[in-house]
Amino acid sequence: MADFKRIIMAHSFISSRKKTYLAQLSELASRNGVTLEWEEMSDGPDHHTIWQVYPIVNGQKWTMYIQAASNKKDAKEKSAEDVIMKLRGL
C-alpha cells in the first residue's frame, strides 16, 4: 500500500476531459502491478440514489477517500481525484 502511495505522489497527473483522474489512476495501478478495485454502496430511493465509493488497493480499504455522487461513475471519479489530490498535498 505504501509503495502505491509513493508512486502516486511521484506521478504527474493531468486534468483533462479526455483522460480522467480515474483512468489515470487505474492505468498507473495496472502498470505497477497494483490491484485497484472500488467498493460501491448506494442509498436512497431509485429516483434519488446516492452512490458512495472508495478504492481498495491490494486488498486494503482506503476508506479515507470515500466520495459520494448521484451515479457510480461520478463517485469513482471524485474518489480517484481525492486520492491524487490528498496524497500529492494539493
Which overall shape is indicated by the principal axes computed on the Cα atoms? globular
Query: What sequence of helices (H) and strands (E) makes up the elements?
Result: HHEEEEH
> What's the CATH class, please?
Alpha Beta
**Biggest β-sheet strands, sense, barrel:** 4 strands, antiparallel
**Overall CATH architecture:** 2-Layer Sandwich
Q: What is the CA-based Rg, rounded?
A: 13 Å
Mean of the pLDDT scores? 94
Tally of separate domains: 1
Distance between the termini: 20 Å
Structural class: alpha+beta
Strand elements, count: 4
Could you give a quick summary of the protein structure above?
This protein has 90 residues and is α+β, with helices and mostly antiparallel strands. It is built from 3 helices and 4 strands. Strands 1, 2, 3 and 4 form a 4-stranded antiparallel β-sheet that branches.
Question: Could you characterize the architecture of this molecule?
Answer:
The protein is an alpha+beta fold and 90 residues long. It has a single domain, classed as Double Stranded RNA Binding Domain (2-Layer Sandwich), CATH 3.30.160.20. The chain is 40% helix and 23% strand. The chain has three helices and four strands. The protein has helices at residues 2-10, 21-31, 72-87; strands spanning 36-43, 50-57, 60-61, 67-69. Strands 1, 2, 3 and 4 form a four-stranded antiparallel β-sheet that branches. It is globular and about 40 Å long. The two termini are 20 Å apart. The model has no long low-confidence stretch (mean pLDDT 94).
